[in-house]
Amino acid sequence: MSILVYTETENNKLKKSAFEVASYAKAVADQLGEKVVALTFNAESTDALADYGVDKVLEVKNDKLSKFNADAYAETLKNAAQQEGSKVVIVSQSANAKYLAPLLAIDLEAAYASNVTDLPETDGGFSVKRTAFTNKAFNYTSLDTDVKIIGLSHNAFGLKDNKSELEKVAFDAKVSDDNFGINVESVDKNTDKVSIADAEIVVSGGRGLKGPENWEMIEELAEVLGAATACSKPVSDMGWRPHSEHVGQTGKPVAANLYIAVGISGAIQHLAGVSASKTKVVINNDDEAPFFKAADYGIVGDAFEVVPKLIEKLKEFKANNA
Amino acid sequence: MKILVCISHVPDTTSKINFTENDTQFDTNGVQFVINPNDEFGLTRAMWFKEKQGASVDVVTVGGKDTEPTIRKALAIGADTAIRVDTEARDGFQVAKELAKVAQDGSYDLIIAGRESIDYNGGMVPGMLAKLIGAEFINTCVSLEVEDNKATAVREIDGGKETLTASLPLVIGGQKGLVEESDLKIPNMRGIMMARKKPLNVVDPVEAKPQSATQKFEKPAPKGDIKLIDPDNIDALIDLLHNEAKAI
Fold first, then answer.
1. Structural domains in chain A, sorted by start
2. Substitution target from B35, B132, B219, B248 for chain A, most A beta carbons within 10 A
């Protein structure tokens, strides 16, 4: 018996989200009196998993799996879960994890819960708390199968230091040509910018910025904070910014530690999409903007005056706290 | 090419979310239901395949009679036939099983679903459906072309995009980007009139046992009051973000 956790890599290095899911897996394992087994694909080093309570890591080294392939990765996780007798499998909510989890669920005849925000309730059953209605509500769901898959929301649990003795084992993925029906022709990834999904801080701009030519200060604010940039729906609809930056109900969800909205009034769909963020700051010249009801901190003022000042002050802060 | 578009019947994005029966049921009172937005992008892309490549387009939903106006709207937009699996949608797995039966009976080449519904946000139906029927699967799909039984798709990944190819049959988890928002089709009067004459086939469900069950819903705790900061005192904001929120 064990808890299996899929610890993801980026450029063969463990991602920060891998340590979050590992921390969560450790807590679930303690609750159930089990061990934590992690699985990695082509990771250069898995040593850091010993800081988050992982007992054993199955290391897959396979050139065929150098690029993400949902079916092949799901097949590998299935083989690992079966070998280790895992009753609970934990994944992140990255685009890749969300892609493979339903495939794995069918393979393991497991119930899958996405967007889980807390530890499961395991007294007399197994249920999880997850977000639904695009963060407008929580949904307590029982998972009624022998094996369960949990998709943990980004930043919902955080990192928990937990030193462990880590056993490293080579693992044969046992994938076949049948698992490669999808061919990856090309990958176009912006590697020098943090993605919205991985970001701790997101800086977002709306129609109040008046035009795409004014995004320089948003980019600069994001750079100072090491943040991802995002935008509201009208901004992406008008083509000021790419669709991939659109956050909200029909765009990407944001679950950052800090979300800064500049010139965004706060339509209900936008607020729903970003409400899982822990701290929200709004900068808007209209004090009636709905976002002021949803944010923790607000500045009523002209973004073109406030943002440059904020950038300057943050640079000072960073210099003094480096 | 035979296309099946899976439609989820969901509350409009502006809906206020409330619950009844001791917070175990969604309160539909006064709620306007629509085609799930992620499905609507896929439906419009399917219309493009119909117009440009002569594809046939069926739509399917799993739900009671109350979902019929939503699939009628899909017919008004231009789908040829609607199918309603006459059972309550209870969890993602059960819906995927019901859809798998319809998909297999119709021998579809391409099945387009939304990456997730905006009510339960489960994000599992398209992938489960693909696996159940042994089709290939591409999630968070933002562009799709099909030529000679071969699909080329662009998938959104964290921080970028990936171009993928696959042979049909294929299941897509679609979203905005499959078509532009401005290209979404709004049913016109002719479409609405024609939709009344198009077949809406009600089929019996297969036996599909849900794997999960909602026990209760809960609304997030009300937000505390906002702290307003003077635009001439940005230091105060930085202090709050650092010392109070511990966000920087």
1. 2-180 (3.40.50.620), 201-320 (3.40.50.1220)
2. B248
Tell me what pLDDT residue A1 has.
Answer: 82
To which residue do tokens 């977000």 refer?
A131
Average pLDDT over residues A180-198: 91
Picking from B121, B176, B214, the nearest residue to A134 by CB comes out as B121
Homologous superfamily (CATH) of B2-217 is HUPs (3.40.50.620)
Provide, rounded to the nearest whole percent, the portion of chain A with pLDDT above 70: 100
- Closest Cβ opposite residue A185 in set B163, B181, B214: B163
**Using CA atoms, how far apart are residues B167 and B148, in angstroms rounded to an integer?**
9
- Chain B contact set for A135 (CB, 8 A): 220
The whole-angstrom distance between B62's CA and the closest CA on chain A is 19
> pLDDT band at A322, cuts 50/70/90?
confident
Tell me: pLDDT of A192 over 80. Answer: no
Distance from CA of A149 to the nearest CA of B (A): 11
CB spacing of A297 vs B226 below 8 angstroms? yes
Q: How far apart are CA A87 and CA A89, in angstroms?
A: 7
What was the ipTM of the complex prediction? 0.96
Give the Å distances, CA to CA, from A258 to A173, A276, B200. 38, 10, 48
Please report the pLDDT score of residue A185 as a whole number. 96
How far apart are the CA of B199 and the nearest CA of chain A, in angstroms?
A: 30
Phi/psi of residue B244, nearest 5 degrees: -90, -55
Task: Note if the pTM is more than 0.90.
Answer: yes
Strand bridging mode A258-262 / A201-205: parallel
